[in-house]
Structures
1.
Amino acid sequence: MKASKLLMATALTAATVSGANSAAAEGALTLCWAAWDPANALVELSKGFEAETNTDMSFEFVPWPNFADRMLNELNSNGTLCDLLIGDSQWIGGAAENGNYVKLNDFFDQEGISMDDFIPATVTGYAEWPKGTPNYWALPAYADVVGWTYRRDWFERADLQAEFKETYGYDLGVPADLEQLVDIAQFFQGRDIDGTTVYGAAIYTERGSEGITMGVTNALYNYGFQYGNPENPYGELEGFVNNAGAVAGLELYKELYDTGTPPGSSNWYMGENIDAYKSGQVAMQMNFAFIWPGVNADPNVGGDNTGYFANPTGPAGQFAQLGGQGISVVANTDNMEAAMAYIKWFAQAEVQAQWTAMGGASAMRAVVEAEGFADKEPYNQAFLDSMAIVKDFWAEPSYASLLLPMQSRMHNYVIAGQGTAQEALDGLVADWVEVFEDEGLR
Amino acid sequence: MSGNPIDRVAEATPPAIANKVRGLSDRAIAWLFVGPSIVLLLAVNIFPLIWTINLSFTNFKANRLRDVEYIGTRNYERILTDADTWNSMQATAHFLFWTIFFQVLIGFTLAYLINKKFKGNDMWTTIIVLPMMLSPAVVGNFWTFLYQPQIGLFNYVVEFFTGIESSSFSMIGDVNLAPWSIVIVDTWMWTPFVMLICLAGLRSIPDSIYEAAECDRASKWRQFWTLTIPMALPFLMLAVLFRGIENFKMFDLVVQLTGGGPGSLTTLTSIDLKREAFEKWRTGYASAYAVILFVTVFGLASIYVKALNKVKER
Amino acid sequence: MSGFSVTEPSKRQKWIAGLLVITYAMVTLLPLLWIIATGFKSPEDAISYPPKVVFTPSVEGYVNLFTSRTRVTSSMEETLAPPETWYEEVARDAGTTIVGPSRYGQRFLNSVVIGFGSTFLAIVFGTSAAYAFSRFKVPLKDDLLFFILSTRMMPPIAVAIPMFLMFRELGLNDTKLGMILLYTAVNLSLSVWLLKGFIDEIPFEYEEAALIDGYTRFQAFYKVVLPQAATGIASTAIFCLIFAWNEYAFAVLLTSGNAQTAPPFIPTIIGVGGQDWPAVAAGATIFLIPVMIFTILLRKHLLRGITFGAVRK
């Protein structure tokens, strides 16, 4: 076939030209992360590194709903876009096992970087694979966790307080547990405040990426849901994922969605929740802590108008969904030296302190345990409380195959109202068992 | 005769002309002219298609380093017995049927009205056509904003015209409304397309036919059903074909608009396929899925094209 | 019967038809106008509850579209120099400071390079293939043409699976070249079909005369056929360009940073805290302008393009 020769020739030409393309990109150190407030702060912070080492940096930020898609696609296509990647905590298993990230143990030893200097939960969550073993694939870069903001100005109105007390028999304030949170949301739902109708709470309900999972887990954990028998996580899911507590937790989340959230909040994640809160639609907002500095600075709802609290407790304990990321060196980088130099620079205590001051969130103990940190900003105490109770989703190489059925089952029950909580979780067990069987883990 | 299309092209050229040509031979010119297109289509369409068919019999995962095994028709069995597949097929069918229904209805009406040649009809046609020039992904994204009951425009407009309170319903979140929310946006965007084709159809009908009908004293109503509709029918069918193919492929607009929710109610086949292929990275499984979609769309399209040709011949 | 035609609609009919069409146009324009208006709102006004129809125009959306900013924190306040440019001033008024240009310019440029590059190739290959199909007698011509058309029926996601693997092998993922080749192939079906229709209409006698005058076939092609097909080529080019310009699925799956075009980028413009609707709207508006101009210039040829040449005047 002559055509096949031509095909080969086209392919060869193509390969040569693209080779030239990537060579042109060399020189600058490219850091990839999600597009959000902390990333912009990191650009400002990194100017210090650029000046110190005379390195040009470029940044590639992808918004959350597309972040996993785009970056995992990039890693799986052996792309050379990123030298450094602040990848989501769930990717670490796959990235480690597929050789996408550089293992950093030797480098840490050599440079005297110790993981003991970081908040333990962040080391486990952002750096280790397999979990619980001292194999490090990242340096904790940004500490984040799901928590709540509330309209203190509304909560403190005397008339509302009196009415609330009369209805529910306790004081209107930061909810002591998740059931109280639902009460408060229902209390505000549809209420007229200063001439506009407001609603209870903005919660995570997004369908397309990971939104509803990151929301519903905050109720599931606190009611007894577990990812499997801790002794045998892949082998024994029945009774852990779908136990009676988990069912109650899921029902509570649905009740909150049905009776305490704004109409149309069926596909909301970080951005929509912020919009709803800032435009004065809701009394409470579930969101990752990264938004707190922005809320505090907001001309309408910021300052004294807002308070912050950690995810309230439930019958089975108090947990909060872990967010945040570690910074990793992409194995495919053609800029290894500069990438390592950046991590070394970033791990310095002074830089970490500056990082938090500029709107980042350091996971370094020296920063968050420093005297006066808890009172420095109005949200710092809630941040510390939240970081102490974190729990994370699967970080297995097959995490996406585990996440997608969770998204679909949870959305189907909570938002579309189809079936029961028990059926949703039983179905999830079946889906997860199938994934683990495919992976040869069962 | 050799099986190669290029050689056939050259051989089929009348020798009289070929002899007159100086410089390059006809055969060489045929090669030169058709070659690049054929190569590109082979490289970007045929070769990948064969590769896809091959992969569909494996358990290959593009993000793993492990060995690839041939597993026979297991992928096909799993897809065809998976309730999710049928749910997404159903969602696609609902979307296809109603978008085509509304677009043909509104599009044809508009074309009929514009064909009355009122003053300024050219300008208004151009204005109506604007939505289809937008990028569907951007449209889908922006409509999530328009559909928000509190801060969007849509619900307030509905309230203005019908009196239904804006905060009482949510287009994207409600199980009953969500499948319609995507139909509305697609209809908004693509009705002009159907309108343009219908307009061409109406303008292709010679005036003399109506004049003859007028002499026969056929009523306007009768003229519409016995002349206008049958004469415009091939064009209408063409519009249905193009919209059908486009909406069977639909991905960008809907994925931006609803993300496939609530639950999986608006998870069209393309969205389902994308999740299997590029999120779960079940490449083998997704390849089998892709093959099933190919067969469906080719099958339906060729049956339809046959019907269309019959109508044309009448 | 002079001056009166039975097929000419009455004044009243015209009036009613006009009224209905204009009403539809107004309603259908609303979302579009809302997008354009949102581009000139401040981020607060854009998400105001209930929505604002009357607002103070602001260029913040456009400034935000082209820059990336970070919030001025208390620790930064002392070290920041006073604003030097008008756009820095806009950012400061919103409590932020500009840290650099955004990626919008680069994405727009990618769209231009990939859009025009693939259109050019699709036209060059398409014209020559269409010429061959039109002028040489090809057995099974209809089948071949249907095959070429059918390549456009495949869902892009399905095509993207093997393309992803192929690009990975060849190192073409996230390169402009890869995207140009891909869009060229997808557009070829359209351009071959359309251009064949246009070239069919050019009488063969012209070329024959040229051949007899001693032109080579190649000379006859570009000195006689090409000028005759110029309008056809121009309108075909527009349709290829519109496809490549607005394409999303391939772009989102096969590019990440270097070669990404604007459509996957615009919906993901994030400001400081939440989705930046004015910037998204501004980005969409700017992106629409080139296509809008083409639409208006070429409205006479629209029909032929969207129907794959099936509709002749």
Note: Residues 83-114 of chain B form the longest helix (32 residues).
2.
Amino acid sequence: MEEEKAMEMSASANHADTVPRMFWHGVKTRAAKTIFRQKDFGIWQAVTWDELGRIAREIGMGLASLGYAPGEVVSILSNTNKEWMAADLGALGAAGVVNGIYPTDAPIQVEYLLFDSGSVYAFVEDEEQLDKVLEVRDRMPGLRKIVVFDMEGLHELNDPQVMSLDALRALGREHDAAHPGEWERRIGLRKPEDLAILCYTSGTTGKPKGAMISHGNIMATCAAYQALFPQDENDERMAFLPLCHIAERVGGEYHALYTGAVLNFVENPETVPENVREIAPTVFTAVPRVWEKFYSGVLIRLKEAGALQQSAYKVAIAIGYRQAKLREERKPVPAGLAFAFWLARLLVLNNVRKAIGVHRSKILITAAAPIAPDLVRWYMALGLEMLEAWGQTESCGAVTGNPRGGVKPGSIGPMMPPSEVKLSPEGELLVRGPGVFMGYLHQPEKTAETIADGWLHTGDVGKVDAEGYFYITDRMKDIIITAGGKNITPSEIENQLKFSPYITDAVVIGEKRPYLTALVMIDHENVEKYAQDNAIPFSNYASLCRRPEIQELIQGEIERVNKTFARVEQLKKFRLIEQKLTAEDEELTPTMKLKRRLVNDKYKALIDSMYMKEAA
Amino acid sequence: MSDVILELANVEASYGPVQALRGVSLSVFKGKIVTVLGANGAGKSTILKTISGIIDPSKGQIRFESEEIQKRDPDWIVRRGIGHVPEGREVFALLTVEENLRMGAYTRSDADGIASDIETVYGYFPILRERARQEAGKLSGGQQQMLAISRALLSRPKLMLMDEPSLGLSPLLTQEIFRIIVRINREKGTTILLVEQNANMALEVADYGYVLEVGRIVMEDTCKRLLEKEDVQEFYLGMKAQGVRGQRRWKKKKQWR
């Protein structure tokens, strides 16, 4: 009876109310269509819904055979790849809860996340990730088994607690044959209000907090996304952001399951540009850092091009900007300009789009961090629609977004129904709606602080215009109050700095200080190129940073930005971070942003040096 | 800095479409042994070939005793005082040992000086005196290496470029060769730029080191300090922190700090 009902529900159109039901419905209806691609020995290999359904079912039933009970948590510790998604859907299908752990996390963080989430199984990508779990498993009595995706180098490992994904799937096949109907039963077990996934927020202050996201949160968000960013089975997307992050998990994986759009898993984080060019996605979601990288890549290549190409670009992009400006102002584009733009695209801009790999893109979506408005305008000038969206883990992803044909650069767009967004008297953005999370795991006080009077308190401060477009001015806790008592919103300045091809990221400093300063992280590749072009000798990263010519280069960029701000908002000094930071470093978030608080503490001496008396 | 004998600034070099050096800047101090470490294909040999004029750099300057020498002919550079001990010895196989040595002195005309220098290198490598009339092609690999070093010394270089002197040699012979390299440096004051895959050996004898990765310098320091760097230990000295399983195949990401 229960089973029948479950089947019926999972078969009901795209109105499935849980992730497993949605997934299984997709397997049934899209059977032989491609769900994703991943490279194998250099060749993109497609996987169909049927195949993914079979693999996920084997994983889920394998877990069931080991005694996995509904509602129990598994953790996945892997880079974004097809096994991640299969394990996620297998565990969710078996009525479980899935927690993602960043592959760049150190063993001590892995320990905390496994423990806090109460994980009973851990899926790990390979030997490297396995070692992290093995290092801490003695303190993890609740952990029953560790399942390894890639057994390379581990075939001789004989550890009763470790098994390969293939072995788990074999167990699943046997268990499935012996228990017909069990998978379907489990698919139907979870309800919309039940916990589906845990997303740990990076936690720049204190321990990470596990945000509880329900099936209902996810399904409502998918529906809202579809209204703003429509896509279907003919669309190609990239998957490369961490799946532990709400942006890729819901906006990427689940929204693709919802719509049938094809996901393409990149080989590794370094091959993103190459893979983008190969796939030419039609819908492309990325973080500002990626957009910045594409933009500076084009600018740098242009410097190498001949004079003719340079002036052709100048003319073409100017036409693009003129058209984009009219669009931004919602004015009609005169036929002459439209024709000029058509020509500009044909002769120049299409090549620029191709060089990036966005020549087929209908929409570009940017989220997860603020983006410089000028960068949005540049993409618009190429004739692309770049839609900035805003949200957070606690709202299950975006709850505002710029609509197609109505982009306002610098704005995060109007609220996305059915979510409601409003400003508190202090200017904080508050959110209410079906995407608002269930709360933090084991932390009712923190939950109560975050959801008060039925509204999610986002901590972002902003404003709203007459048309309902929201603008974020800063994180509430990031606002700097200088010694002179002036309130400064650092991210506005930082975004302008990041627009420079030579600056990857910057942190503005000035809390209780007489003036503003900044710590700057250079763009290694572009600054290196600048040094080569200008015969500035250097050996390694640190020596590059120390070159007076490079200091001058960055000084020039700072002065350019300073011109756009009032006197009190101008940066008086800066220092470069002389160590090349990687995702493994605690200073960076997994999306490669500098963590403000941590940087403030860690580089205190360097910061203090900017406030020493010159004479001393 | 008057005691910098050789300086490379922003040197780029390519083999056809393949860029081997992507902007290398380094300094070699007079009287020192400086080493460049790197894996296969990092561009180590290319650096030496670019210095000795076998390859012209596509960009950048090479200054020897403050004079720009890039794009000069190799023989001019030898006369200027740079000797090159190429990778794989490259002795003249059909000439005798002594003839090989005289080839090394090709740029000189002081017969007495040459004779005394030949005596000196026989002092370093007595086996070469024994084989003086033998064809160089019939020497063992180690003896050929000795000959190649000796041949370079015969031009009385101020700076010797050595390309993997340990290549194909037994550990014992390697040690002997390196002992002589140090001796040449100490006794004659010859500055040595040493390229090596045998990082252990190179870091032991050299004063200062650069680490080269795909045509870029990623690290530089005194050899003493390089030996303490985690990445140098793991990637060049084969030392790995033991994992929980007592073995570890995966490599951590290189950070070079």
Note: The mean pLDDT of chain B is 91.
